[in-house]
Write a structure and sequence with these properties.
- This protein has about 650 residues and is of the alpha/beta class.
- It folds into two domains: about 260 residues, no CATH class; about 260 residues, Rossmann fold.
- The protein contains 27 helices and eleven strands.
- The strands form three sheets. The protein has a six-stranded mixed β-sheet, sandwiched between helices.
- The longest helix is centred in the first third of the chain and has 30 residues.
- It is globular, with a radius of gyration of 28 Å.
- The chain starts with 8 loop residues before the first helix and ends in a 13-residue tail after the last helix.
- About 50% of the residues are buried.
Length: about 650
C-alpha cells in the first residue's frame, strides 16, 4: 500500500460518515447517542491528510511553512467567518442580551482559533446551556488549528533527525491517551476541549500516513476495513454523554478511522465509502459541520422547545442547502485561489473581506453593551446583570453566601437544629430557610453536583468537596442527631452510575426513574435508622420547563407565542420531575416524608416562573433564586412542613450551632 498523495474518494466517504454521526447526535436521534465520536474521526482524517502533505513535500524538498499556513487559512477561515457572521446576524434579532453577549464573545474566540480554550474557561456547573451556544461546535476547529501550528514545526524538526517513524508517532498517541486519562480525573472539561488530550487522535492519522506500504491478503484487507467501520459505528450507537471520554474510550473510533484509511485504498469493501452519495456529502462535510449546529441552536432558541419530528426534517433539509451554498460560493472559491493570489488579493476579494469584517464589528458592540441590554422589558429594569448570566446567578441565587462544604442559616445562636443535605439545589433553599424559618438553625452540607443521600454509595458526578462534605455530614449527624432534609437535582442523577465508595466496581442498579427513586427512599430510611430522627426528601423542583432561564426567555426581543411566565406541567422537563416525585412517595417507609415542590410552585396545569411581583423564581434554568427560595420555603412552612421541628430537635442539638462547634 502506497501512501502517495492521490485523491481518495473513500476518505471523503469517511468524512461523510463522521459528519453524519455528529449531525444525527445533535438532532437528538436517540439511536446515535454516541454520535459525537464523529469529531474524533475528523481528527484522524485531518492528521492523516496534513501529515501526508507535509512529509511528501519534505521528501521533495518543497515544504514551505508559509504556503502551508496560507493553505490552511484558505481552507478554514472563509467558511468559518461566513458562518460566524450569519449566526451573529440572526442571533441579533432573537437572542436575549445574556445569550447575545456570550455568543459575541465566543465568535471572537472562534475567529481567533481559540474557541476550545474559551469554552473550557467558561465551562462549569452554572454555565449557559448548550442550547444557546450556537458556536460551541467550533471548539474542534480550535483544536485542529492549534495542532496545525505545532505539528509542521515538529515534523520539520523530526524529519531532519530521521525521527518521523511509526514507532515514535505511536508512542505519542499512547502518551496523549495517558494525558487524556489523567485530565479526565483532574479536569474533565479540559480533557474534552484542550489539545493535549486530543493531540494523539490527530497524530494517529499521521501515523497512518507514515506507515510503510505492505502487502496483505485480500481477505485480511477487507477484514481490516470492515473491522474499522465497526469500530467507528459501534461507539456511535453505544456511547452516551456519560461515557468516560475522551481518553482510552476515544481510541476505539479513532483506531477504526485509522483502519478505514489504511485499508481503504486496497479493500474491495471500500465502495461502502467511495460511492457517489457518500463522496458528495464528504465534499461538503466541512460546511455541513459549520452550519448544522447554529441552525439547530437558533431554531430551538426561537421556538423555546425541542424540535418536533417534522421540524427536524425541515431543519435537516435547510442545513444541507446552506452547506451546499457555503461550499459552492464560499469554501470552494477560496480554496482554488493560488498562494500568490491569496497574498495579493484582487479588488473583489478585498471588498468581500472588508464587508465581512465590517459586519463582524457588530458583535464587539454587542459584547460591550452586555448584548444590547437596553432592549429589556421595563418590568425587569431594577434587576442587575441581565446581560451577564453568571453574575446574575451569583447575585440572585438562593444559596448565595452559603460556604462549602458547611454553612448555617442562623449561626452563633442557640436554636434547635436541622440538617439540609444535597447539592447546589439544596443550597438554593438557604435564603428561604434563613428568612422564613428563623427559629431553626439549618446546618447545610450541599456541594455542587454531589449526590449526598448515603454514607456508603456515591455517584459518578460530584465536586471536589463532595467526599469531605459526606464524611462531615454523617459524623455530625451521629454526634448531634436532628431532622434531615435532603434535596438534589434528582433528575440529573437518574442515569449516572452509583457505586460503593470503597469499591467502585460494585455498581448499584439505579438507572431510570423507578430504580433511582427506590434507591433514594432506601437510603433515606437508612439515615432515619441511623439518627432516630425524621427524614424529609424534598423532591425535584419543577424548573422553568425551558432550556433557558425565565429571565433569558422574557428578555428576548422576539417571543413567538412562547409563555415565559409559566411552564406547562405536561412539559417533558416538568413532567419528568413530577414522575420522580410520585415514585418517591410510593417508595418511602415510615419516618421518611416526601415534600413535593410542585405542590407549592404549580397549580393544576402550570408552574410559575415568576412571583406575583414579577421576580424570577429561578436564577438560571433550574436553581431557585432568592425569591423562589423564599416562595417555596414559605409555602412549606404554611403547610406545616417545619411544625414540631423545635420539639423534634434534641435540646443538646443546640450545641451544633457554630458558637459551640
Amino acid at each position: 500500500m502506497s501512501n502517495a498523495l492521490r485523491y481518495r474518494p473513500d476518505v471523503d466517504g469517511l468524512r461523510a460518515v463522521a459528519v453524519t454521526l455528529v449531525l444525527l447526535f445533535h438532532l437528538e436521534i436517540s439511536m446515535f447517542s454516541g454520535g459525537f465520536v464523529g469529531v474524533d474521526v475528523f481528527f484522524v482524517i485531518s492528521g492523516f491528510l496534513i501529515t501526508s502533505k507535509i512529509v511528501s513535500d519534505l521528501n521533495k524538498g518543497q515544504f514551505s511553512l508559509i504556503d502551508f499556513y496560507l493553505a490552511r487559512t484558505r481552507r478554514i477561515v472563509p467558511a468559518l467567518m461566513a458562518t460566524v457572521v450569519l449566526t451573529l446576524l440572526v442571533a441579533g434579532f432573537i437572542y436575549s442580551p445574556a445569550a447575545l453577549k456570550e455568543l459575541s464573545e465566543s465568535a471572537f474566540s472562534a475567529l481567533a482559533s481559540v474557541s476550545n480554550v474559551y469554552f473550557w474557561m467558561t465551562s462549569g456547573y452554572f454555565d449557559a446551556a448548550a442550547e444557546t451556544k450556537a458556536l460551541l461546535h467550533t471548539w474542534s476547529l480550535g483544536v485542529e488549528e492549534q495542532f496545525y501550528l505545532v505539528w509542521p514545526l515538529l515534523l520539520v524538526w523530526a524529519f531532519k533527525r530521521q525521527w518521523v517513524q511509526p514507532t515514535i508517532l505511536a508512542g505519542m498517541v499512547l502518551a496523549s491517551t495517558v494525558v487524556a486519562e489523567l485530565m479526565l480525573v483532574s479536569d474533565a472539561s479540559g480533557a474534552y476541549f484542550l489539545l493535549p488530550a486530543r493531540f494523539g487522535e490527530l497524530v494517529l492519522g499521521g501515523l497512518v500516513a507514515v506507515m510503510p506500504a505492505r502487502t496483505f491478503s485480500k481477505r485480511l484487507v477487507d477484514a481490516g476495513f470492515l473491522g474499522g467501520l465497526l469500530f467507528v459505528v459501534l461507539p456511535a450507537l453505544v456511547y452516551t454523554q456519560e461515557t468516560h471520554f475522551p481518553g482510552a474510550s476515544a481510541l476505539i473510533p479513532c483506531l477504526g478511522a485509522a483502519a478505514l484509511i489504511y485499508f481503504g485504498k486496497a479493500s474491495g469493501a471500500a465502495f461502502l465509502l467511495a460511492n457517489r452519495p457518500f463522496v458528495a456529502v464528504g465534499k461538503i462535510s466541512y460546511s455541513l459541520y459549520l452550519v448544522h449546529w447554529p441552525v439547530i441552536v437558533l431554531t430551538k432558541y426561537y421556538l423555546m422547545r425541542p424540535l418536533s419530528d417534522g421540524e427536524t426534517l425541515v431543519a435537516s433539509f435547510f442545513i444541507v442547502v446552506l452547506a451546499f451554498i457555503s461550499y459552492r460560493y464560499v469554501e470552494k472559491p477560496f480554496r482554488e485561489i493560488t498562494s500568490a493570489g491569496f497574498r495579493f488579493p484582487t479588488r473583489r476579494l478585498l471588498v468581500t473581506l472588508g464587508i465581512i469584517l465590517g459586519i463582524a464589528i457588530f458583535p464587539l458592540g454587542w459584547a460591550v453593551t452586555d448584548g444590547m441590554v437596553w432592549r429589556n422589558p421595563a418590568a425587569l429594569g431594577d434587576l442587575q446583570f441581565l446581560g451577564q448570566p453568571k453574575k446574575f446567578h451569583a447575585k440572585y441565587y438562593g444559596g448565595r453566601g452559603c460556604e462549602i462544604p458547611r454553612c448555617e442559616t442562623q449561626p452563633n445562636q442557640r436554636k434547635p437544629i436541622a440538617y439540609v443535605w444535597g447539592d447546589s439545589h439544596a443550597r438554593a433553599l438557604v435564603e428561604g430557610l434563613r428568612s422564613e424559618v428563623p427559629e431553626i438553625n439549618f446546618i447545610v452540607y450541599a456541594p455542587s453536583s454531589c449526590l449526598l443521600v448515603s454514607e456508603i454509595y456515591i455517584s459518578a458526578r460530584g465536586s471536589k468537596f463532595c467526599p469531605d462534605a459526606r464524611r462531615l455530614a454523617f459524623d455530625e449527624l451521629k454526634k448531634l442527631p436532628a431532622p434531615v432534609f435532603i434535596h438534589q437535582s434528582w433528575t440529573g442523577h437518574i442515569d449516572l452510575p452509583v457505586y460503593r465508595s470503597a469499591d467502585p466496581s460494585e455498581v448499584v442498579d439505579t438507572f431510570g426513574t423507578v430504580k433511582f427513586a427506590r434507591f433514594v427512599a432506601q437510603q433515606a430510611t437508612a439515615i432515619r435508622k441511623l439518627s432516630g430522627q425524621p427524614v424529609f426528601i424534598v423532591g425535584a423542583v419543577p424548573t422553568s420547563g425551558m432550556t433557558v432561564s425565565p429571565v433569558d426567555c422574557v428578555t428576548r426581543p422576539v417571543r413567538p407565542d412562547v409563555e415565559c411566565d409559566e411552564g406547562e406541567k405536561s412539559n417533558d422537563l416538568i413532567n419528568s420531575r413530577a414522575r420522580f416525585n410520585e415514585e418517591l412517595r410510593s417508595n418511602v417507609a415510615a419516618g421518611v416524608s416526601v415534600v413535593d415542590p410542585l405542590d407549592y410552585l404549580c397549580d393544576v396545569l402550570r408552574c410559575g416562573n415568576f412571583t406575583d411581583d414579577g421576580k424570577p423564581v429561578y436564577s438560571d434554568t433550574g436553581h431557585l433564586s432568592i425569591w423562589g427560595s423564599r416562595l417555596l420555603v414559605s409555602k412549606m412552612r404554611d403547610h406545616g412542613v417545619f411544625a414540631g421541628r423545635r420539639a423534634a430537635a434534641d435540646e443538646n442539638a443546640t450545641a451544633g450551632s457554630s458558637n459551640t462547634r
